[in-house]
Amino acid sequence: MKKTFGDYTYLAGGAAKGSLWAGPDHVLYVEAVGLILPFKEQYRRIDFKNIHALTYGRTRTGLWMTIWMLLLVGLMGLGVVMNLGSSPTASVVFASVGVPLLILLIVHLAKGPTCVCKLQTAVQVLRLKPLGRLRRAESCVAQLSELCTRHQGGVAVSLHEGSGEQPNASQVRMAGNIAKPPFPGSKLVVWGLVTMLVGSAASLADLFIQSIAFFTFAGLLPVLGGVLSLAGLARSMMRYRVPGVLLTALWGEVATVALAFVVAYALFGYVMVKDGGVGSSSRGALSGVTMMLDVIRYLSNATFQSEPLVAWVNVGIAALGTFFALLGLPTALRPPMARAAAASVPQVPSPPTPPDQP
Amino acid sequence: MAILHCPFCGYHLSTSVLSAGRGGVVCLACKRSLQVLVFPSFVEANTPKPPLLPDPPAEGESVCFYNPSRRATKDCKHCGVLISDLWAAQWGSDTVCLKCLDHLRAKGKDERFETGRTLWGNVVFALAAWPFIPPLTAMYCMMTVTAPAAFFLGLWHWRTPGSLVTRGRWRLVLGLILALLELCAMGLGGVAIFTQARFFQD
Which uninterrupted H or E stretch holds A39? Predict the structure, then answer.
């Protein structure tokens, strides 16, 4: 990454997430739009003299990322160890997924805890995505603070120390704490959790039912559950104060589906190379569709006896899905049940109005 | 009046939150600890200002081009008309009238104020390179569309400026080379199928 261009000096970020640059009288935020590679860049320039505040705080995203990556690395390591003697090629496949994940985990841990940082002006609150790590954010905020105070004059006030340097309450007239309304329940959330519960049960049942149609059904249901959960989560979080338990359950569902995708990809590779390939695809002309159908057929016929590793991985993911669905369902169902209970209470007729006095 | 927002939940931070004690400010709504750095402009924005009074021109003084009831204090660096403070805006170091500001923002090609760019180098590279990503390789037949598209876009946008920040177009060049190789491979494959079909007919 270049450190300067034109009048600008590098502050933070990279090509994929966008970057921050300090100009002569403004900060340039290059916002990257795209998937893995940025396909578009949007430029936002904010004058130092117009910046009202910088706010940031540590998030739990880093912790969750560590947990999920550890889980995945552990699963891949298990796959390597279990196949070391019987099928070295399968071990290589698991290692080829596990090693990059391990590197990612090390890089993630080295970068430190995650945070969210926002810049506020009179007309906008801008999230600075390049400042996603606490350590980087702290140093960058210090640089920005120095530049802002130089252009605005006066001294920046840090409110995190709780010292007596806070702005005068008469000067800083704050609006009241306008809280979002409590979560009233959402059909989308309930359906997402129920679909995930049914999908998890279907995944377990698939171990005893040898049918491609049922395998496809059992595979698609959790995906549908994950999509519904994500939609419900986005819709509810924007409008209401969602309880923490429900948030955990919904994020857990989404993460479980993501985990299932990664594991399915590893299993796909594992099945492809196990004993030199499966079915017809190992012999002669390989076509992508035939190969995929072969693998699907193989996975759908997997049982505890024939493929214990595939079966146990399936059980693990289904258990995770069930756990999160059961965790979230009571909280998701409470508001509609409370409403139904309130509606069932008979209405007491209002007392008749007394006659007017003559 | 300016207000502060919690970076997590977006709630307005009330005075009671700002006066929270040691160990960090806590948002009352989401109960999360956060760091807030307030600059003088925030306090200034919350200081009550007197209302803007009418500013009629005195005898012999210039009047605003857009509002003749106001005194002209500046001139637009873009179109040259005399304007009042109300009709003036800053465009970098220049003072321009609001109409010129609108024009500059909509059609101006000034690099200093560009709002966005499409990174055609990355688009071409992604179009050409996706068949090499393992899970997507199965859909290799899509290459018949994406390879020519990558090649055409690469040539068409050869001179289009890339990112404002990073210079160089190695991704565009690499994308073009990959697209060319894919086109050659498809052509050779077509010839092979054609000659084999003729061989079997004979």
Answer: strand A37-47
C-alpha closest to that of B10 among B29, B25, B35: B29
Closest-CA distance of chain B to residue A205, Å: 27
The per-residue pLDDT for range A60-73, each reduced to its tens digit, is 899 999 999 998 89
Residues 6+ positions from A223 with CB-CB distance below 8 Å: A199, A257
Confidence (pLDDT) at A165 = 42
- Compute φ and ψ for B36, nearest 5 degrees: -125, 130
Contacts with A59 from chain B: Cβ below 8 Å: 8
Q: Give the sign of the dihedral formed by CA A290, CA A294, CA A295, CA A297.
A: positive
Say whether A40 and B36 touch across the interface (CB within 8 A): no
Residue of chain A whose alpha carbon sits nearest to that of B2: A122
- Measured CA to CA, the distance from residue A79 to residue A95 in angstroms comes to 8
Segment 253-272 of chain A within 8 Å of chain B by CB? 265
ipTM: 0.81
Q: What residues contact residue A169 under an 8 Å CB cut-off, 6+ apart?
A: B15, B18, B19
Which helix (H) or strand (E) is B96 found in, with range?
A: strand B94-97
Å from A206 to nearest chain B CA? Answer: 24
Q: How far apart are CA A108 and CA A69, in angstroms?
A: 10
Encode pLDDT of A80-135 as tens digits.
888 887 778 888 888 888 899 999 999 999 999 999 999 999 888 999 999 999 99
Which tokens hold the place of A137?
A: 């954010």
Amino acid at site B128: A
> Can you tell me the distance from the alpha carbon of A344 to that of B61, in angstroms, rounded to the nearest whole number?
77
Distance CA A268, CA A73 (A): 17
Spatial distance between the Cα atoms of B57 and B84, rounded to a whole number of angstroms = 10
B116, closest residue in chain A (CA to CA)? A42
Is B117 close to A40, i.e. CB distance below 8 A?
yes
Are B127 and B152 a contacting pair, CB within 8 Å? no
